[in-house]
Design a protein that fits this description.
mainly beta; Immunoglobulin-like; 2 domains; 6-stranded antiparallel sheet; 5-stranded antiparallel sheet; binds calcium ion
């Protein structure tokens, strides 16, 4: 009987704990704004919360009393953003990009068909997948799929989007840009991007995937980054590559890995 009372008492405490005064957890919507440079956060007011704390990779960025906050990528980008109802719960937004080690890629003039020159990127949220293929494996009819080739232009190695090759337009166009001043932030102006880009060894290039082929950046776009190792050879050339794609928030240009 005593045990029963203790259980009842514990139960009563639990119920009391959920009542008046308890602060809940915000339910946050995150979207890309400013051509993917900034992250816009909104949530409904949490009962009994008076302020909210915003964190980037667990560092406090701001404490506010409104239910809307924009993180400007120009101040730095993050792999995780958190909104905390002070006194209550935290809501985490995972922004870690998709990552794939592509191994060695070879310029298009390499006659060995097992030496892949093409990078294929299927863009679809959680199903995002990057692989390499040879010329025979290129299929321009595949939806949501970008292709670009590692190209030997008379001794200058380049990344070249498929629509600049004899294959013609694919379903997605890729454009390449040098890194800007903020680590992990893809440039957000179309003028920074080119569909043919000279490649230096041991470098990183941002990629803008234009998914509606209109030449404009929008939330329908997708951003990534390709990191290349040293370039080897005298033509054909080869290098190693790792690709990253921001597939968590549509149109966001944050590639923090
Ligand atoms: Ca577009």
């Amino acid at each position: 009987m005593k045990r029963f009372s203790v259980l009842l008492f514990a139960g009563a405490l639990l119920v009391a704990g959920c009542k008046k005064g308890e602060v809940g957890t915000p339910d946050v919507t995150a979207k890309a704004v400013n051509n993917g440079a900034d992250l816009d956060l909104t949530w409904n007011a949490v009962e009994n919360a008076s302020t909210y704390k915003i964190y980037g990779d667990d560092s406090l960025l701001a404490e506010i009393d409104s239910t809307h906050f924009v993180i400007a990528g120009s101040n730095g980008v993050f792999a995780k953003v958190t909104v905390e109802a002070v006194g209550g719960g935290k809501y985490d937004i995972d922004l870690m990009p998709y990552e794939k080690d592509l191994g060695t890629i070879y310029t298009h003039d390499d006659p060995d068909t097992t030496h892949h020159s093409w990078v294929k990127v299927y863009l679809s949220g959680d199903s995002t997948e990057a692989t390499t293929t040879n010329q025979a494996g290129v299929d321009t009819t595949l939806a949501n799929t970008a292709y670009f080739v590692f190209f030997n232009n008379s001794g200058t190695v380049q990344f070249k989007d498929i629509h600049q090759t004899s294959f013609g337009a694919g379903k997605v166009h890729s454009y390449f840009a040098d890194p800007g001043s903020v680590s992990g932030l893809a440039p957000n102006s179309t003028s920074d991007y080119a569909d043919i880009k000279d490649v230096s060894g041991n470098s990183e290039y941002y990629i803008w995937f234009d998914r509606d082929l209109d030449g404009d950046i929008s939330t329908n776009s997708c951003f990534g980054l390709i990191k290349v190792g040293p370039t080897n050879g005298t033509g054909p050339y080869n290098t190693t590559a790792t690709i990253y794609v921001q597939n968590k928030v549509p149109g966001l240009g944050w590639i923090k890995y």
